[in-house]
Amino acid sequence: MERHEYFNLFHNISTEDYALLADRLKPEAFKKGSFIIVPGQVQGKLYFVKSGVQMSYFDADNKTHVIAFTYPPNLCAIPESFSLQQPSTYFLTCLTDSELEYVTFNDLQQLFDQSQQLERLFRKMTEYVLAGMISRHIELHSLTIEERYRIFCQRSSHLLQLVPHKYIASYLGIDPTNFSKLFNKVKI
Question: What residue stretch is flagged as signal peptide (predicted)?
């Protein structure tokens, strides 16, 4: 899906407004295993994923706790670090070689001053992220492990081939042994 088409899923923007943003985007490539953001660092760039898979996570009690995966055509960020320009409390890393494009925080603020439509687009995208986080929180606390697994497979089944299963298990709040049983038992 082309980026302008992706944006229009959230809010229709004109070709002119899209060009304002596209003109500010710069490419950046990361190798598998590279960190995009680490705890204590302020995210100064908002990324758009062109290729690859990224993961946000934190470590606690000798365990990795996965928060989210990103992949094309999504945004890639630690939302509160970028939006509030505050230090991150968790990691953003590349699970595969990744090609991203970014706009800096300052450039994005200038674009918002130039274009109400771009500001509205990003507000709606932020609302979508918030709604998704709330839905995920509810799923983690109200659904069985099999229901969580099935929903994940409906949304992101391609990640089963790209992401180590221990990370998907962590994301779903499932013990890796139980995840392996689900993976082998549940046909999607």
Answer: none
